[in-house]
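User: I've been trying to design a sequence by hand for this structure and keep getting stuck. Would you show me what you'd pick, starting by listing the structure so we're on the same page?

Assistant: Good idea, let's start from the same input. This is the structure you sent:
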């Protein structure tokens, strides 16, 4: 991969550790763990593997590497060699969700800078938001280590108090068995997904539009111990908003909705 001007120079140490070395390892490990299995896992997407094995303790290594490979790919796929800006179609959704682009920038970078330890911060589209005109269509989500942002990979939204919220899970139900039955028979997404598919209790149906990697090997060697904020500000200037809008359009094409005019 060539360098990203003003973020990762061609000779940047972090570019090598974050992309060439780390991504190569996280891609090869799921292949090594699945190639001897007589299943479809060998050719499955990393996102598919992460969701499938998120709650299987015996496949923890497979989940971690597949999820990390997918997350890191999402981070690099939205980088641009030059500065871009949100389109007239995307900007109203940002304004509705965060009041303005500057407000969104401030909140997103502050969230990423405050994330203690390695992880990712995401801009996500709520694909099935509450049916109210005031409901924001976009949200900021954080995940730690190689955690997956997708609802199929976890049981619940963390702020929900499961001690006081009805879940319809009867006494004696195995949580792992319940989680493996969350998906509809037609899959998690796409034009044939079931409209009434189950979500984890408290879960939000979503798709990722944009993400930043806050693992130390992505910024520490080039930006220094106190340079995380500088890295995040440089990253913001190299977001490829055209790719972000494309990610949004992909979601709308699945659901039959139009990005413009929303």
């Amino acid at each position: 991969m060539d360098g990203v001007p003003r973020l990762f120079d061609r000779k940047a140490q972090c570019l090598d550790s974050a992309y060439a070395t780390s991504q190569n390892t996280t891609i090869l490990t799921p292949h090594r763990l699945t190639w001897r299995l007589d299943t479809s896992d060998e050719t499955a997407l990393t996102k598919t593997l992460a969701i499938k094995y998120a709650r299987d303790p015996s496949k923890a290594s497979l989940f971690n590497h597949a999820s990390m490979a997918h997350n890191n790919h999402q981070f690099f796929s939205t980088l641009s060699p030059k500065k871009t800006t949100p389109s007239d179609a995307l900007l109203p959704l940002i304004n509705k969700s965060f009041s303005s682009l500057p407000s969104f920038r401030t909140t997103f970078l502050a969230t990423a800078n405050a994330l203690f330890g390695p992880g990712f911060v995401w801009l996500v589209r709520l694909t099935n938001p509450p049916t109210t005109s005031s409901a924001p269509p976009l949200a900021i989500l954080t995940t730690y280590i190689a955690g997956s942002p997708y609802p199929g990979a976890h049981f619940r939204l963390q702020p929900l108090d499961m001690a006081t919220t009805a879940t319809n899970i009867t006494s004696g139900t195995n949580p792992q068995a319940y989680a493996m039955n969350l998906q509809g028979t037609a899959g998690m997404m796409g034009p044939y997904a079931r409209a009434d598919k189950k979500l984890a209790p408290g879960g939000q149906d979503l798709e990722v539009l944009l993400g930043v990697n806050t693992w130390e090997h992505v910024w520490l060697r080039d930006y220094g111990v106190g340079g995380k904020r500088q890295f995040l500000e440089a990253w913001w200037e190299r977001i490829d908003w055209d790719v972000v809008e494309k990610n949004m359009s992909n979601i709308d094409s699945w659901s039959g909705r139009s990005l413009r005019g929303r």
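That's my pick for every position. To get oriented when you compare it with your attempt: Residues 13-34 form the longest helix (22 residues). Confidence is low (pLDDT under 50) at residues 156-163, 182-196, 253-262.
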